[in-house]
Amino acid sequence: MAEILKIIIAGGISSLDSTAAWQVMISQPLVNAVVTGLILGDVTTGAVLGTLFQIVWGGSLPVGASAFPDGATAGVIGTGGAILLKKNLPGIDGNAVLLWSLLISLGFGIIGARTVIYMRRMNESLMRRADEFAREGKVASLELLHLVGVVVSFVRGILVTASGLLVLLISGLAVLPKLGSTLSPAFQPVQIVIWSMGISIFCAIFVRKKSRIVPFVLGLVFAACLAWGHLL
């Protein structure tokens, strides 16, 4: 129970870092997954899943009003859930646990993005109130509204993390004993696909050309060569 509580609190703190407070990169999947692994005593699992999450969502940043996947909680959900499943299912291959945790937490990254939209709508009403308080010179009320916004972000992170962790643990305990041997061999190809697409996308992003098709294709070819060499 103590470990579950730590994971949920970590999700709330990571949610805060995405926009409401700090913004010191804790909300990035690579960071929050490794930190979660460190808290639970399994940094390797955090590093593996965090890297994959970061590649998948590397081009998504919480800038302005842009919609972005909720990697702040997904990294914590996936890493925390994978570590707990490994402890409770010692007979199941670790790759099967990692693949299942990756798939479920990616889904909750999308679900979490919807909750961010609802939170922004709530913040719009807070901003209107803030404008009124600013015109009236009510500094204390402005500070209170800011605190409310921070608390809302923290609670959202806790709720999404708790929900995702619950679904991941229940589904994993039910599915992995039956399909673990089937899922285990699939994890390696999934990693290769993610790495390959990630390399090609980053090439397209960072090479400044009028057309990004050429760097994208070159990146994809380069990644495919790396994948082929790995398979050999």
Keywords:
0% strand, 8 helices, 232 residues, mainly alpha, globular
Describe the model.
This protein has 232 residues and is mainly α. It contains 8 helices and no strands. 38% of the residues are buried.
Topology:
Layout: H1 2-20, H2 29-40, H3 43-56, H4 71-88, H5 94-136, H6 139-183, H7 187-206, H8 213-231
Kindly state the number of beta strands: 0
Supply the number of helical segments.
8
Q: Round the Cα radius of gyration to an integer and report it.
A: 20 Å
Largest sheet: none
- Helix proportion: over 70%
Outline: globular
Instruction: Tell me, rounded to a whole number, the average pLDDT.
Output: 79
Which structural class is indicated by helix and strand composition?
mainly alpha
Helix/strand order, N-terminal first = HHHHHHHH
Uncertain residue segments? none
Give the DSSP E fraction (strand runs of 2 or more residues): under 5%
- N-end to C-end Cα span: 44 Å
Quick structural gist:
This protein has helices at 2-20, 29-40, 43-56, 71-88, 94-136, 139-183, 187-206, 213-231.
